[in-house]
């Protein structure tokens, strides 16, 4: 995804609202993208409007520099900047349900680091389902190409100086509650069929080039 700086814009979905049905319905995607994600973008811009010195920084740079930001802006950038970053990757990393599985170097890395695609899936689902409260489960790679799965709470991100996100699953209730209510495991199980493995492979290649 192209690096941008202030003012950040609401990126359109790379598909129609109902393109992920029946796993994620159009109503959920409408509220998730047009309401929740947009609010994070608006709040981040409102915060940065008072800090000209931060307006030249990309979102990744902001999130990697939280401890060096003015204390009065730090919490907002962490929460809203993380919300923008995480949602943009989440939306971009999915496509219509087609039952894809990893290919190429990423497929080889999944088998090497998890034992098999099925073992990867079980570990990823476990991370998503057991994350307490709101948060995310991530597939990450380091610069050497070793894959790992991590959980983060709220809108936190992994250490972006050490890891490149390949994709993630949103386990905030607003991502699934309209359709699944409290059945988070069912939502996560369906999400595996939405992973855009072609884009995931591209991210993996770029991160390990």
Please provide a written account of the structure.
This protein is mainly alpha-helical and 209 residues long. The chain contains eight helices and three strands; from the N terminus they run αααααβββααα. It has helices at 26-48, 59-64, 71-92, 104-114, 117-130, 177-180, 184-191, 197-208, and strands at 135-141, 147-153, 164-170. Strands 2-1-3 form a three-stranded antiparallel sheet, with helices on both faces. The model has no long low-confidence stretch (mean pLDDT 96).
Q: Outline of this structure?
A:
By secondary structure, the chain is mainly alpha-helical.
Straight-line distance between termini: 16 Å
Count of DSSP strands: 3
Shape: globular
Mean pLDDT: 96
Strand order of the largest sheet: 2-1-3
Oligomer: single chain
SS strand fraction: 5-15%
- Helical/strand content category: mainly alpha
Largest sheet: 3 strands, antiparallel
Low-confidence stretches: none
Evaluate the radius of gyration.
17 Å
Topology as H/E string?
A: HHHHHEEEHHH
Helix proportion range: 40-55%
Count helical runs. Answer: 8
Secondary structure layout plus pairing:
Blueprint: H1 26-48, H2 59-64, H3 71-92, H4 104-114, H5 117-130, E1 135-141, E2 147-153, E3 164-170, H6 177-180, H7 184-191, H8 197-208
Antiparallel strand pairs: 1-2, 1-3
Helix pairs in contact: 1-3, 4-5, 4-8
